[in-house]
Amino acid sequence: MEKGSKSIHYAWWIMAIGFVLYFFVQAFTNQVPGLFTKPISAEFNVPRSVFLLHNVFMNLAGFLAAPLWGRLYKKYNFQRLLAFCIVMTAVGFFFRSISTNIYMVIASGFFRGVFFIGTTILPMGLLVASWFEKKRGFATSMITVAASLGGVVFNPLIQTLISSSGWRVADRLSGILVAAMAPLVLLFVRSDPEKKGLKPYGYTGAESAAVEVPKTGLTAAEARKTPSLYFLLFASFSSTFVAGAMMQLSPYLTDSGYDPLFAASAISILGVFSIIGRPLMGMLHDKAKPGTAAAIIFVSAAAGFLCLNFPLNKFLLGAAIVIWGFNSGISLIMPPLWTMEVFGAKDYAVIFSLVVAINRFGSLAGGYLIGLLHDLTGSNNLIWPICSAMMLISLAGMIYSFRASNKRKAQETV
Q1: pTM of the model
Q2: What is the mean pLDDT of the chain?
Q3: Band (53; pLDDT cuts 50, 70, 90)
Q4: Sequence-separated (6 or more) residues with CB below 8 Å from residue 225
Q5: Which of 54, 64, 86, 315 has minimal CB crowding within 10 Å?
Q6: Residue 348 and residue 128 in contact, taking contact as beta carbons nearer than 8 Å
Q7: Which region, left, alpha or beta, applies to residue 26 given φ > 0 means left and ψ of -120 to 50 means alpha?
Q8: Residue 385 CA, distance from chain mean position
């Protein structure tokens, strides 16, 4: 794999390593944590809402740490930093496994969040942007779909382990499997193609290895002066906010009169369409114009949320589940792609780290604010229209950003 081959560009190995990282690190951190809610809450005799502060503080830490990691990845050895973040994320699992009170559990969430943000969405966004000139959408979607597949594989295994040996043993095994990814990173990950004597996949410029790929676009300081940055940040926030709303789908269906088995089946169907939909979303980005892709994604998502206002109509409910299944990857797939599309590669690491920070803030705010709104109003009648409105506002902002980007690129080529 040192130079790649004529048939397989090394960029595809980078994608494969990203797939493995998402399959293990992302899945253990974001796909199975719900399994620990009941046993940990029961052991420490606290309400489940108190245990969920573990997740709140993990996302808060990611929000705070993302800009720092963006600058560090730009300045220091990429694979060593990534391996370090992976190992420290694994330490976070062990930290929670030795907790003697709920405060240690919550602290372990913050500790893990500081390093977890530097293991998947941020570094893989940087790697895909560096290694792929073409098919960035496909590569990103194939990497992120691994998290869903990891959830399918590990949820029953971890649940069995919790039932037979306890949640502490399950946490330690999770930590061991996460830490095992560090050697893979050290051996095979390189921050950019030039370090392998290559050009990005799909690059059509000068082929000489001595000629570096030019990095065009805006600096972070220049980006902060444009409305486009704040439209992109709002779209990133909205994508994870509405994902938090969809986490309430199961209780919403049972509150609407469906039995728990029906609600569980609906979630399973949504998961299947999510696995199918993520590669399709990536290919949509690669094939369509950015504005067209954004319109298809945001308009369909807005329509799906409105369908959820009629849960007893099974046709509309089914449509909503299928639509969100296809759009569920929006919070992981589109932010890195749109950041590159709007601002270019010149200061991508720093700008994208800001996008990731706001992405984590959306995740932090979404679940709790949606739950609070339900508690205040006693229903979800306002939740789904709010989500629809956020999708349409995001679309308007991104259309403006793409047009501004196209105008800037046209001026640069004059």
Answers
A1: 0.85
A2: 88
A3: confident
A4: none
A5: 315
A6: no
A7: alpha
A8: 24
Residue partners of 376: CB distance under 8 A and separation at least 6 = none
- Cα-Cα-Cα-Cα dihedral of 335, 341, 344, 349, to 10°? 10
The letter for the amino acid at 335 is P
State the average pLDDT over residues 13-17.
96
Report the SS3 class of residue 43: helix
Residue with tokens 């942007």: 129
Q: What tokens were used for 123? A: 């570094």
- Three-state SS for 239-274 is HHHHHHHHCCHHHHHHHCCCCHHHHHHHHHHHHHHH
Report how far residue 168's alpha carbon sits from residue 46's, in angstroms, rounded to the nearest whole number.
17
4: confidence class by pLDDT, cuts 50, 70, 90: very low
- pLDDT at position 1 is 43
Query: CA–CA separation, 85 vs 179, rounded Å?
Result: 10
Task: Please compute the mean of the pLDDT values over residues 174-182 and round it to a whole number.
Answer: 96
What average pLDDT does range 141-152 have in this prediction? Answer: 89
d(CA 185, CA 202) in angstroms, rounded, equals: 24
| pLDDT (mean) for 89-94 | 96
Task: Please tell me what DSSP assigns to residue 208.
Answer: -
**Contact residues for 270 (Cβ-Cβ < 8 A; gap 6+):** 246, 249, 321, 324, 325, 328
Most confident stretch, 50-54, 173-177, 238-242? 173-177
Q: Measured on CA atoms in the order 187, 192, 193, 197, is the torsion positive or negative?
A: negative
For the chain, list the domains and their CATH numbers. 10-196 (1.20.1250.20), 220-412 (1.20.1250.20)
Crossing angle of helices 330-343 and 290-307, rounded to 10°: 150
In whole angstroms, give the CA distance from residue 56 to residue 52. 7
Place of tokens 């960035």: 136
Per-residue pLDDT band at 119 (split at 50, 70, 90): very high
